[in-house]
Each structure stands twice: as structure tokens, then as C-alpha cells.
Design goal:
The structure holds 2 protein chains of 2 kinds.
Chain A: H1 14-37, H2 45-63, H3 65-72, H4 76-89, H5 93-96, E1 106-111, E2 114-119, H6 120-147
Helix pairs in contact in A: 1-2, 2-3, 2-6, 4-6
Chain B: H1 7-21, H2 26-54, E1 57-60, E2 71-74, H3 76-99, H4 102-106, H5 109-125, H6 129-148, H7 153-184, H8 189-198, H9 203-220, H10 228-232, H11 238-262, H12 268-291, H13 296-317, H14 320-351, H15 362-365, H16 367-381, H17 387-401, H18 405-431, H19 441-444, H20 452-471, H21 474-488, H22 490-498
Helix pairs in contact in B: 1-2, 1-5, 2-3, 3-5, 3-11, 3-14, 3-20, 5-6, 5-11, 6-7, 6-11, 7-9, 8-22, 9-11, 11-13, 11-14, 12-13, 12-18, 13-14, 13-17, 13-18, 14-16, 14-17, 14-20, 14-21, 16-18, 16-20, 17-18, 17-20
Classes of the chains: A mainly alpha, B mainly alpha.
Keywords (chain B): Cell membrane, Membrane, Transmembrane, Transmembrane helix
Family (chain B): Belongs to the CPA3 antiporters (TC 2.A.63) subunit D family.
Subcellular location (chain B): Cell membrane; Membrane
Amino acid sequence: MTDPNKKIMKDNTVILHTAALALLPLQLLFSVFLLLRGHDEPGGGFIAGLVGAGAVVLYLFAHGVDATRRIMRFDPRDLLGIGLFLGTVSAFPALLRGEPFLSAQWWIFDLAGTEIKLSTVLVFDIGVYFAVVGTILTVVVSLTEAEE
Amino acid sequence: MSTEVALPVFIPLLAGVLSLMLWRSRKWQRRLAVLATGLLLASTLWLLRSTLDQGYVVMQLGGWAAPFGITLVADLLSAVMAVITGLIGFAVALYSLGTIPDRHEKFGYYPLMHLLLAGVAGSFLTGDIFNLFVWFEVMLLASFALLTLGGERAQMEGAIKYVTLNLFSSALFLSAIGLTYGLTGTLNMADLAYKLSQVEHTGMVNVVALMFMISFGIKAAAFPLFFWLPASYHTPQVAVSALFAGLLTKVGVYALYRLFTLVFVGDTGYTHTILLWSAALTMLTGVLGAAAQFEFRRILSFHIVSQIGYIMLGLALFTPLALLGGVFYLVHNIIAKTNLFLISGLTYRLLGSYDLKKLGGVYRERPGIAILFLISALGLAGIPPLSGFFAKFLLIRAAVEIEAWMAVVVALTVSFMTLYSMIKIWAQVFWKPVPDAVDATRLRSRERDPGMFWLLTPIIGLAALVVLFGVWAEPLYQVARDAAEQLLNPAGYIEAVLGVTP
């Protein structure tokens, strides 16, 4: 790194630094919110994944690749693999009940007075979420590392 | 419940994902590749067994009844193609263990291979035209990546032609799907066949049929838009070439078989005459192109094109015997052609080149390999008692029966010229002495090469099948006959999917 102008971001932007720290958890929470409301209302795994990846990418622009890798703990490629895995296995539980592949299975129960609905659809959506986050972060991290 | 019809799609899909999760460990990816393709082969055999028993195996994915949901359906043709997919997948997975360089494995060779197999199996088993498009794209996406893996100059050059023409074909396919939906309001193939059989055939239906024909024709590498194939198939790793040669173009042919026996049968005098001319020209141009080549894999690539012509001929003649011959030819051709590509990789390993001028002396040093080549090559050319003989015999007899003399003459001429090409390879690679400038130490060395086991096992297995389908052709003949019968009676297919009798 010789020419500072070639950096993706300049490291003197205090506002971005601070804002990224504050926005990261908020955006991640918002992405989970989008993911869970997705079944009946606008939202879902794909858009939630984009928002979640956006949060990390913003942090990456402010603090650089190394810091981002530290807070992520996972390699984004693993996230991608886990996501695709969840998406694929959600097709199989239907088999145990003797129904065709991909038939949605529901577990509905009461938790402290609230009706909770869990389903293979949700598993699939979570898979999509991880796959999207994993893909975008793999691309962005590799590009940034290639740049440095 | 008919789980077996979904397994050939889901096994490679799951294997691809698991392989991606294991990206750190090449060792486990390799084990998984063999295990998963082995399971794929087993599941397709199970599917073939049930299809032989029940005629049609149907699953409505997610429990959504046809024509609203996506249907997976296997008739005998689909089941046979699925078995071949499993077989070629397994053979290529074994072969990959000995030939794919570490760098390619690291960049995701195995996940892509599984994804490609999932796309191919999905295309063979889906009963929905739009879903067919999706599986085509899955397959093409994986093939784009496999084709350019390694990033050599020649690969990029070939890939540009490959990608451009295939994207054009996909766009055409999608437009045709849109028009079909506008005309009929359905994309389920059985429902489509039923609806089109109820109304008078109009010019618009022929337009759509031709759009599908051109689109699948490009993917099958039929005349006139075949040149992307010889430009690209000789550039990637041999295992990839072999996989493409065996399966990819055949998916295009299969789609032609499916649509032009099930859906677009209202005006066969028009559509199937075009197919006949295209088939004849495909055979001729392919074999003439091969005559001018002096690169092992390029010769074989041109022969893929000419063989596609034979298979299309079976569809174009559209008699029970011709379709029987076509199905038989498909099976024979996939096995023999894949094996020839695998053998070209073997001689490359021994002599370090694909150029016929820089090869030689294999028969003298390794007669076993030469015999394996001879079996596959003569099988391809149609010498009795190998599998190609019956395939060609059935097709040509079908053409004689309906007095399509042009087809007979072309098919016989092309057969002779195929033999000429195979003899050219034989003379150059196996018969003539090693050229002076070539380093033949590997060829002459008597040391055991541990990787060789993985190359020879699939080659010997496939060569054995070429012999088996020649000397004991009866079982395959019967399956192909029943498959042809099903193709000529779309009512059974429609009833199996929709549950109504047209």
C-alpha cells in the first residue's frame, strides 16, 4: 500500500468510522426482522441477506479487511456453504412424513401466550439469507484483498 | 410415493453443497465425489427399475397438483437418460481423481461437477417447460465455470463462442416459453400437449415450435449453429471435455425428443421435415469437419456433431423403429464418445500432447490401451459386433422402410467417413512409431503409475459396456423399444401427469 488514494476509503473519516460501529448492530437486527416477517409480508431471506451483508460491507469500508475478518469470525465461504446446505436440506423433512419433496412442514406451538410458527420454509429462508450474505461478502472481501 | 424420481436431482445438488462446505479439504471432496456419483448411479437404476414396472413415475413437488406446481416425471426415455447420467458421472468422477490438477480442485472443480450433474438430471426428469429452462441454466452456468477453470488463453477463446451462442439460445428458449404461455396459458408439458391436441393447429404453433427447435438445436450442436462446440470442447481438462461430450449436447437432443414427440406433433409433415434436413446436414458437416482436423480432441468434437445428426434422424423419421434406433443410439453414443475422450486423456498423460503428429507408438508399448481405443472407436463407427452396429442398423433400416433414401445414403456415407477418422487416429496415435522429437519416457517406462488406476478403471468399464451392448443387445433393445412406444403414445404421459384421459 503505497498510494493512499488507491484505498477504497480514506482512513480519516471519523464520521464514517463512528457511524459504521453504531449502524452495524442496527442493520443486522433489521435484517433479522426482515427475514422473519418475510413469510406473509414484504421481506424474506434474499432482501434480509442484502441488508445484513450491507452492514458488514459498511464496516469493511470504514475499518478495513482485517478488522472485518476479526468481527465476522466465520470465513464468508463457510457462510455460503451453510446457507446452501440449509436451503437444500429443507426439501427433505417432507420425505419422513411420506410427502413429496419440498412439501412445507409446520410446527405451530404456544410460547408464553404467543403463537409461534416454525416451518421448513423458514429453514429455507434462513438458508437463502446465509447464502446471500456469504456470496456478497466473499466477493467484496476478495476484491478488497486483491486491491490491497 | 415415488421418491426415486427426485433423488437423481437432489443427490448431486446436496453433494455439490456439501462439497462446497468442505472447500478446505480436497481429500474429502474427492471421497464425496465418488460416493455421491455412486449414489446417483444407484438411485437412477432404482428409477429405471420402477419405470420398467410402472411405466411412468411421477412426483408433484411440494404437493402442488399439476399443472400448477412443478412436476417431476420419468418415462422410460427419461429414466434411461438418467441412468446414463449416473454412469457417466461416476466414470468421470473416478477419472477426475487421477487427472484434475490440485489448482482446479481448489477452485471448486467438484462442486461445479455435482451442480452440472444436477442440472443434467433435472433437465431429463422435469415435466415443466419453464423448469426445463431453469435446469438448462443451472447446467450451463456450471459448464461455463468448468470450461474456463484454469484460465488459459485457448479456454477463454473457446468460452466466448460457447457462452455467446448458448446465451442466445437461452434467450430464444425463454421467448418461446413466453409465447407458449401466451398461446395456451400453461407450461406443464403434459397439459400443453393436451391443450394443443384439443385445438386446431395454427401457424403460430409452428412458429413457436420452430423457436424451440432452433434453441435446442443450438444446444445440441445441430446444423447450422454447431461451430461453438468444436471451438470449445478441446480446451478444458479431459475429464471436463468427456463430461460435456457425453451429456451436455444430449440434453438438447433429449429436449427435442421430448417436445417433438409430446407437444408439437400436430404438423409433423412440416416440423419433422425440417428436422430431417437438419439431421442430414449435421451428420455431413460434422464428419467433413473432422476429416480436416489433426488434433485428437478436435476430431472427436466434430464427431459429436455428426453423431447428433444420427440421433436427430431417429426423431425426424418418426416411426416406431426410428425412435427405437434413436434411443439406442443415444445410449451407445454417450458411452462410446465419453470413452474416446477419456482415452485421449490417457495418451496425453503418456506422451504429453493431443496433436496427432506428436503422438505415436502406443500400440507397440501399450497394446492394452490400443485395444481399448479400438473397441470404442470401432463401436462409434458401427462395426459389428459392437454397440454402434445395432444403433446404426436400426436407424438405417427405419429409413429404408419408409423409403427415405436421402437419409440412408447420408447415414451410410457418414458411417464410412467416421471409420476413416477413427482409422486416422489409430494410424497416427497407435500404429506409427513415436516421432523423433517426442519425449516418450513415460510411454516406455515400466514403472507403475499410481494415478493410472483411476484412468483405466472407468475406461475399461465403459469399453466393456460398448462390447456388452453389441453382443448382448437384447435388454437395451427391449428398453429402447418400450421407450419408443411410450414416445409415440403421448396419452399415457398426459394421463400419468394430469390424471385425466385425453
